[in-house]
Each structure stands twice: as structure tokens, then as C-alpha cells.
Amino acid sequence: MNLKNKEKEIKLKNIYHQLKQIKDLNKFALTIKELIYCKIKYQASFQDYFFFEMSELNNLQRKSLVLKGINRNYILKYNVQKYISPFIDIELFYQNFSKYMNREWLILNGKNKKEFAMFCQKHPIFIAESKKKSKEVRKNIVIDFTKLKDLYEELLENHLTIISEPIKIHKTLEKLHPESLNTITITTLLGSIVASYINIGNNHYTTENFRYGGLIAPIDIETGIVNFSAMNIKKEFFTNHPITKESILGIKIPLWQSLIEIVDEICLEIPQVGYVSWTFAIAEDKIYLIKANAHPDHLWYAHPKIKIGKLFTFHHAEERKFEE
Fold first, then answer.
1. pLDDT for 54-91, tens place per residue?
2. At what angle do helices 148-157 and 113-122 cross, to 10 degrees?
3. Which of the pair, 32 or 8, is modelled with greater confidence?
4. DSSP per-residue codes, 99-133
5. What class is the 81-88+170-323 domain?
6. Which of 11, 187, 301, 314 has the most CB atoms around its CB within 10 Å?
7. Residue 277 and residue 204: Cα distance in Å, rounded?
């Protein structure tokens, strides 16, 4: 089962689990009615309704949420389709944002074995990633130079066609979960930062993606401090990492001000795509751009324990841009 199918399975199981808890038929009927009402009035998906615990929110709190339909509207309104290719095509992404990568990289195309051999000589250990959006895969490759040709073909066969020099992340972040990059994602809207969070791996997986088993925790934009507990897609909360037991709540993200300065610059590179989530890895003395998503995920915008969403922040970003 690939990770996309696993994500769908988890989503359906969570919705089924929520509905199964309702034993009273009258309450069940009211819940279904509420689901439909929230879908129409607030553009909430069924997953949104349970994830954000909308049954416990008042009208003002519900109106503050960036829900699935609202998120989609922002994408359609501010991301011009003909400029979106660098956020979809990995090769174009690396070419357009190369100066922010801060590392050497190569896209395997079946015709560049010589370049691959030269890259391997320089980087006997490298990271291989999938070009396919449906495969959240990242592997550390240690080269056996006697089987270089076989390795090239194997990488192509497994769609691991993006290779780059290895990243050694900052020790503050590495100790949370050493097997993953434990990245930072910052979302910008029309040049303003509207949200930020840390992605942390779990269960010894190399991916730290929230929808594929990782943990997320909000970061205060002003201070760079993780100011709420981390959670997983099942809404289990952790002040400490469940495996390493390292503290998550309260940690300060290294090089935070430098990261903010990079984000302020990078979000203006393609201004026709105005709503983007940028993901970075942070080392001891440098910052690496990992990916950018012109279809930002809305689920993490409202930590269930906060009870207030990001929509007012989004409105402020729009007003600021229009005033300019």
C-alpha cells in the first residue's frame, strides 16, 4: 500500500471511528445534520468537522477556521495556473529555486550516467528522493562503486530520480527523531507569513509528513518557539517525542530570524503564485529549501487545543497587500 492510500485509509478510519462512538440514534441523526450544515455554511469537509471538533465550537470560532473549501478558494484565487509548474514539476522547482537549495543536486533522466558517476565521486553518500508526488520517499544511499551502473538503474526503477548531497540537520532538531529531517514549514500569503510549524518524524520513518505518520507542532512566528504540543493525524498530543522522549514543547528553532528573512525573499520569486507552503531543513550554519507546495494543507492551521483558526490572519495578509 502506498502512502497516499494509507492516508485515505487513516482518514476514513478516523471518520468511521468518530461516527461509531455515537450510540444514540437521535444524536447520530443530529451529527449527520450538523455535518451537512457545516459543509454548506463553513465549507468544511467531514474530516474537518471531526478534526477541528466543530461540534464544540461557537459560531465565531467556526468562522475563524480555514476549512477545506475556503483553502481551495485561496489556492484558486491567488495561484495563477500558468505559473504553477515550478511547484509541480520537481526539475523546474530545483531550477527555479536553486539558490535556496544550498546543496548540490542532480535529476536522473536515464541519459546522464556520466554526470551521476561524477556526482557519486564527490558525494559517496547522498539522498535519493522520488519525483512522484504520490510517493513520500527519502533514502540515504551509501555507494558501492563496483555496482554504480546497477545503482543508477535501480534508482530509476524505483523512481528515486532526485539525488542531492546529504543534509546534516541542527542537533537541536536531529535529537527529536534522528531518522528524519524534522523540517520547518512556513506558509505565505501575498508576501505575509500566515502560519509556521515543525514537522517531526516518528516510528523511525524517514518521512516527517503529518499525513503519513509524522508529528506537527505550531511555531510562534515572532519568537520561533514551539508554543503548543505536537500532534499526529489521530490527534494524539505530545509534549515530548513518543520514541526519543525529547522535549518538543518550548524548543526554539535554530537560525529562526535568518529563516524568516529567506522566506520574505523567496515568496516574491514567483509573485503570481501567492499562496505557498515552503519547507526547509536547518543545519548548524545554513538553511536548505526542501520543497514548496502551491496547494497548502489546511489541517494544521488550527491546533484543536487552540480553538481559534487562521482565517483572520489570512484576511489581514490580504488587507496588507491591498493597502500596498
1. 888 999 999 999 999 999 999 999 999 999 999 998 88
2. 110
3. 32
4. HHH-S-EEE--SS-HHHHHHHHHH-SEEEEE-S-T
5. alpha beta
6. 187
7. 25
